């Protein structure tokens, strides 16, 4: 190669290196600006969502004249918690504030039932008298159709909402006294005397009695207390440090006390409840519960969310979960919780791995319904800012 050709080659080489370096630098610049732009968009979206949540929940506090309200949202492995309002002593709620979750407890009972089925401790369509000692409970059938565990888990057993009190007792303001003095022995005595008026499985009737009964059946087949089953099979696996039954004086003193629709401070119900509504928890722990239910591949977790009764296209029931549009691109499973002075709402969207929990220490006539509406609006807003379907 002569000198002229060598110079030409070197010039072309230098130009090529300069061009490639320029392109690489341009790519780096575009990438950096893209990351900054996307981070900015994500930040704006997050601020937009937080602003929307704050608007909805502060408005709720104002309309209801409530003290506090807390929210937890999970998406995949991520979680977000926020709290509004303050207590009479001027303290504010936090991720560690302990609330009654009332009937959301039923979803834990349903998960334990699913676990017992996978462990072959029980069968879903077994006559419940198999686990009760059949001779005493011949009444628990109608036209030779017995009550099964499936009937109990979907509120189709024909058993009443409660044995311990009636609507008249609520009107007379003595329901709490009756509940707080009602025993396990009394429940089984009432159960042995109750007469069904329809075929099990034929009609939906919400029943705390049925859920409580499953709790006692689970204790019997595992030979362990219900609280131990919750710890061993659910909260220890999900990482929920604060979800539990609280029975001792010190534990009860930790629970947030609530008010009724008239602003009157009311007693806690959870110390006298069981598998139907006795659990208490925090937003941090419920966030972990939601993540566990949305992300776990455990057989019992999948089974517990399986439709047992009702429509795949509209409303149905899983293991104590209510289901909505089970066969759609965005199915929902949900449950509300209502104590004497606390209301809560929990909804999961399994296909999107998305969940929302809202709790407040007030219980008026339609507080749970309002939390339902707010949760739906927040999820719609979440869809809007994230673009997920």
UniProtKB/TrEMBL annotation:
Record-annotated Beta-lactamase-related domain positions: 54-375
One MF annotation (Gene Ontology) recorded for this entry: hydrolase activity
Entry keyword Phosphoprotein: no
Pfam families in alphabetical order: Beta-lactamase
Superkingdom in the source lineage: Bacteria
Keywords from the UniProt entry: Hydrolase, Membrane, Transmembrane, Transmembrane helix
Transmembrane segments: 21-40
Annotated family: Belongs to the beta-lactamase family.
Name by which UniProt lists this protein: Serine hydrolase
Organism: Pseudoalteromonas aurantia
């Amino acid at each position: 190669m002569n000198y002229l050709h060598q110079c030409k080659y070197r010039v072309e080489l230098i130009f090529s290196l300069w061009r490639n370096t320029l392109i690489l630098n341009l790519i780096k610049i575009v990438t950096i600006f893209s990351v900054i732009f996307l981070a900015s968009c994500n930040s704006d979206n997050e601020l937009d969502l937080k602003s929307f949540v704050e608007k909805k929940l502060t408005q709720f506090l104002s309309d209801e004249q409530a003290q506090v309200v807390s929210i937890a949202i999970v998406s995949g492995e991520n979680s977000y918690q926020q709290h509004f309002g303050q207590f009479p002593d001027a303290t504010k709620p936090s991720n560690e504030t302990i609330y009654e979750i009332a009937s959301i407890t039923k979803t834990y009972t349903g998960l334990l039932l699913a676990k017992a089925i996978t462990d072959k401790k029980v069968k879903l369509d077994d006559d419940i008298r198999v686990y009760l000692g059949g001779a005493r409970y011949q009444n628990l059938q109608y036209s030779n159709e017995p009550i099964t565990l499936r009937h109990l888990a979907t509120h189709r057993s024909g058993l009443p909402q409660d044995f311990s009190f009636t609507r008249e007792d609520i009107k007379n303001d003595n329901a709490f006294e009756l509940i707080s003095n009602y025993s396990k022995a009394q429940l089984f005595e009432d159960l042995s005397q109750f007469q069904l008026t329809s075929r099990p499985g034929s009609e939906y009737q919400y029943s705390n009695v049925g859920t409580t009964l499953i709790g006692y059946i689970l204790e019997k087949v595992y030979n362990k207390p219900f609280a131990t089953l919750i710890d061993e099979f659910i909260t220890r696996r999900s990482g929920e440090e604060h979800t539990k039954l609280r029975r001792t004086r010190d534990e009860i003193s930790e629970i947030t006390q609530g008010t009724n629709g008239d602003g009157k401070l009311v007693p806690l119900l959870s110390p006298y409840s069981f598998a139907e509504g006795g659990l208490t928890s925090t937003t941090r722990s419920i966030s972990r519960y939601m993540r566990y239910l949305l992300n776990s591949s455990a057989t019992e977790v999948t089974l517990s969310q399986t439709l047992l009764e009702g429509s795949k296209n509209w409303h149905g029931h899983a293991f104590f979960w209510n289901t909505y549009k089970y066969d759609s691109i965005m199915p929902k499973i949900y449950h509300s919780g209502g104590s004497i002075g606390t209301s809560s709402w929990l909804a999961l969207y399994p296909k999107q791995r998305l969940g929302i929990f809202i709790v407040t220490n007030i219980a008026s006539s339609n507080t749970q319904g309002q939390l339902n509406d707010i949760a739906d609006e927040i999820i719609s807003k979440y869809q809007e800012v994230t673009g997920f379907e």
